[in-house]
Specification:
about 300 residues, 10 helices, alpha/beta
């Protein structure tokens, strides 16, 4: 089974602290690496996590608040200094394109590699990336500016070959891929051996959802049903619910309500307000609603 890991580079909110970096994560699937959000300090965090800069294939920006995108231009500039030649795909709200290209023209005119910008409509759930093993779909969120989350989902896998049955029926190696694709095997004597008898079930697909920043959306769980891991912002505790409402953020309890209703495997809390010296108050609140809650932290690696 291919690796499917979430590397937490930053899980703080807008105000810098000595405890947490601004928002950024790396999703690792097999030999592919994708960045979600790129706040200040992301480059340094990449160094700490030993993720090679050249491995990143695409960057997904959820919205245009500085704690989610102020590190992007510096990272792209560093790619140029490191001699990158492969294109870098940047997915961000379509409102970003004009100023982004102006910044590139002014600061990064001689990068040496192509930047392919993909403007996102944050109001709809739409597949924006696809390769042989993975899709990425937007998750419409509700914040003070156009915002979307991202759902990374493995494509269905082929079943495994039952080696003992293959040997028993003397199935030629040349037919293995056909059988995995669903074809039955017809023996030289004309006997039809169902492919289900020659295979074992495929590994279950895995999915990761990233939802930051957003106010509580009662219907959000319908887009997240059964994901293995959900990252949902938990900026405040319930005693600061008025602040959450004012600034279009969520409390830890509200994040847990989404996780519970979506029947996810685990909930990752993050985007902590700087007011909290100990984020365990957020965790304790979330656990009253959804026991499988855990705190994000810089350097944490979550394996699906």
């Amino acid at each position: 089974m291919n690796a499917f890991k979430i590397h937490i580079l930053g899980c703080g909110s807008a105000l810098p602290t000595l405890r947490h970096n601004a928002s950024s994560q790396v999703v690792e699937m097999g030999n592919k690496f994708f960045m979600i959000d790129c706040g200040e300090g992301t480059q340094t965090q990449l160094r700490y996590t030993h993720i090679h800069f050249a491995k990143l294939q695409a960057i997904f920006i959820s919205h245009l608040h500085g704690d989610h995108c102020f590190g992007l231009l510096g990272l792209l500039s560093t790619f140029g200094m490191l001699g990158r030649t492969a294109p870098m795909h940047v997915y961000a709200p379509q409102e970003f394109e004009t100023i982004f290209r102006e910044q590139l023209a002014f600061f990064c005119a001689t990068l040496g590699f192509e930047i392919v910008f993909h403007g996102l409509d944050t109001t709809q759930s739409k597949m924006i990336y696809e390769d042989r093993g993975l899709t990425v779909t937007t998750i419409p969120l509700q914040h003070r500016v156009p915002t979307c989350g991202f759902l990374f989902r493995e494509k269905p896998k082929l079943p495994h070959i039952n080696r003992a049955m293959i040997d028993f029926y003397h199935v030629p190696v040349s037919q293995i891929n056909n059988i995995k694709a669903g074809q039955d095997w017809v023996s030289p004597a004309g006997d039809v051996i169902p492919h289900e008898q020659l295979t074992t079930p495929a590994d279950p697909t895995r999915a990761y959802a990233y939802c930051s920043d957003t106010r509580y959306i009662p219907t959000l769980h319908t887009l997240l049903q059964g994901v293995d891991v959900l990252y949902h912002e938990s900026t405040y505790t319930e005693d600061c619910a008025a602040h959450a409402k004012k600034y279009w953020h969520s409390t830890a309890k509200e994040a847990a309500m989404v996780a519970r209703d979506a029947r996810v495997g685990r909930l990752l809390l993050g985007h902590y307000s700087s007011r909290y010296e100990d984020e365990r108050v957020l965790l304790n609140e979330a656990k009253t609603v959804f026991e499988q809650s855990m705190l994000s932290d810089e350097g944490l690696v979550v394996t699906l």
